[in-house]
Amino acid sequence: MKKCEMRAMMKNRLAALDPEERAAEEAALISRILAHPLWQKAKNVFCYISFDFEINTYPFLQSALAQGKILSAPKVIGKGIMEARQITDLSALQTDCYGIACPSRQNALVKAEDIALAVVPGLAFDPVSLLRLGRGGGYYDRFLANCGAYRLAPALACQMVNGRIPREINDLEMDMVVTAKSVYAKEKESAYL
């Protein structure tokens, strides 16, 4: 299956979920991440701001601010290119050309090498390789290639597709994928705590 076909299939699968069941599953996986020692110990967190079908990240953003973490989020600065800009107030977020909430260009730039934990979106994940299928713009793969952060992705159970994600040369794997009932991880965690 080609990536474009898998993206369409996953979007349809996510759209077909019962809203109440999805909300309960999301709440469980969010609680699991917020309670994880990796989240608790990370001082500098980069987190996507949820949009459309993505896992709701506002609980992560609110928790990071409440815990006094340095919180940053993606800011698109060109085709396929984004940077991390600090967030100190969720009410000050703007909307970019894609309709996604984001920090302002005036917010402080956070160096990629300073980020300890990156919370990354995806449409599908391989539970064995931890390969991620994104939206297709390559923004996260480019950004994360220059970032030493531990890469964590929240996912619904229906997003786990064993061995079925086509791999291209620039595709990056996650270090951990968390669902409501499972944690899939590589043995890399201790280096980031």
Distance between the termini: 37 Å
CATH class: Alpha Beta
Q: Helix count, per DSSP?
A: 5
What integer value in Å does the Rg equal? 16 Å
Placed side by side, the strands forming the largest sheet appear as: 6-3-2-1-7-10-11-12
What's the mean pLDDT score? Answer: 91
Summarize the structure.
The protein is α/β, with parallel strands linked by helices.
Structural notes for this entry:
This protein has 193 residues and is α/β, with parallel strands linked by helices. It has one domain (3-192): NagB/RpiA/CoA transferase-like (Rossmann fold, 3-Layer(aba) Sandwich). The protein has five helices and twelve strands. It has helices at residues 3-15, 19-35, 37-41, 58-66, 139-145; strands at residues 44-47, 70-78, 81-87, 94-95, 101-102, 109-110, 117-119, 124-125, 132-133, 150-154, 176-178, 183-185. The strands form three sheets. The protein has an eight-stranded mixed sheet with strand order 6-3-2-1-7-10-11-12, with helices on both faces. The longest helix is centred in the first third of the chain and has 17 residues, at 19-35. The termini are far apart.
What are its keywords?
single chain; 193 residues; alpha/beta; Rossmann fold; eight-stranded mixed sheet; two-stranded antiparallel ribbon; 5 helices; 26% helix; globular
